[in-house]
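Hello,

Our lab assistant flagged a job as stuck in the queue for most of the afternoon. It eventually completed. Since we weren't sure the result was trustworthy after the delay, we are filing this so someone can double-check. Below is the sequence as submitted and the structure that was eventually returned. Let us know if re-running is recommended.
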Amino acid sequence: MNADAFAVSLTTQTFDEALVAYPALIVDFWAPWCGPCRVLAPVLEDVAREQAGRVVVGKVNVDEAPEIAARFGIRSIPTVIFFRDGKPHDAVIGAVPKSEITTRLAALTSSQVGESVGASTAPSEPA
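-- returned structure --
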């Protein structure tokens, strides 16, 4: 897993390892040619910086790892999937505002308040 600033670059070889290593993981499915992906990137970098130690932001380039995108049914990019304890918890498609990301992130981490990345907790029932 390669970290560029505050996001972790995920590949076919490192994706499953990240799901295990990071109980709270946000994965951005993107491509370099995608305009909305470039709009969303700084938003996710801000979230990664602000949530460092609680949440990890990962990035999957769908051109380089199409099998991961297919595994999660990614048909449009950017798609952001919020994982808790290795399982998809929520998702958002498109270049959404930061407030949308932080609202969904709050729901993801609500059972993990005060815990750092690396600690495992059981997921709560969906609302």
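-- support follow-up --
The delay was a queue issue, not a problem with the job. The result is valid. Residues 12 and 66 are 9 Å apart (CA to CA). DSSP finds four helices and six strands in the chain.
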